[in-house]
Amino acid sequence: MTEKNKVKPFLRWAGGKxxxxxxxxxxxxxxxxxxxEPFLGGASIFIYLKSNNLINGKxxxxxxxxxxxxxxxxxxxxxxxxxxxxxxxxxxxxxYYKIRSSNPKTATLKAVRFIYLNKTSFNGIYRxxxxxxxxxxxxxxxxxxxxxxxxxxxxxxxxxxxxxxHSKDFYSIIDNIKTNDLVFLDPPYTVAHENNxxxxxxxxxxxxxxxxxxxxxxxxxxxxxAYYILTNAAHESVDELFSxxxxxxxxxxxxxxxxxxxxxxxVNEFIFTNIQL
Length: 277
Prior knowledge:
Layout: E1 35-37, H1 44-51, E2 59-62, H2 66-77, H3 79-86, H4 93-100, H5 107-120, H6 149-159, E3 163-166, E4 182-185, H7 208-223, E5 227-233, H8 236-242, E6 247-254, E7 266-273
Parallel strand pairs: 1-2, 1-4, 2-3, 4-5
Antiparallel strand pairs: 5-7, 6-7
């Protein structure tokens, strides 16, 4: 696929795995049936695999974030309406807070709001307050080709072929996973990389108890003779929890979350898999 025709994520997503697309082929099984991704986020890995014809079966994509999944569903079925509505919006601080405080009534307009806020907010972080209201401040002043409409149409085409979306807890997909399926898991990180701190903006989204549930989930995938690839923070507690379930690899990437003037330092991440490479 040429650079001109390349399909890429349409969302900015903190902690996304776009950096891993360069090497993901090294971790894939020689062949697999259906594809599952229960922590969808920006969908970097799915988009790479699907656009490069590396998924031959069906794709089951899910996330606990209802607004996120709705955005994907609307781009799958109503891309031109999404684009027409986004074209009406301005990227200014005043407009940002006006749209942030709005409450659209239709699924399509909810998706438009979600995409607009994602593209114009600070660092692409998704965060809500105790009342469930999105509260990330304005922070992205790019104006030229902000929404990349041509790419949205490419994404829509990609999603029309054997792709299903669901909004639910990751563990609920276990009954749908069959022998020789591939499950890619990129959970919200509970601990910061290589230190003892917890990720502050994420403590209530994905708890350490959820990491333990995830370890049990991997064991069930093993029992089904399906494949998994899990990414997680390179932290001793994560190492201890997952290392007995498969092979572990440590990979280095540039840090992708930080405010204005923040350094983009190198950090390590773990990849755990039951695939024999």
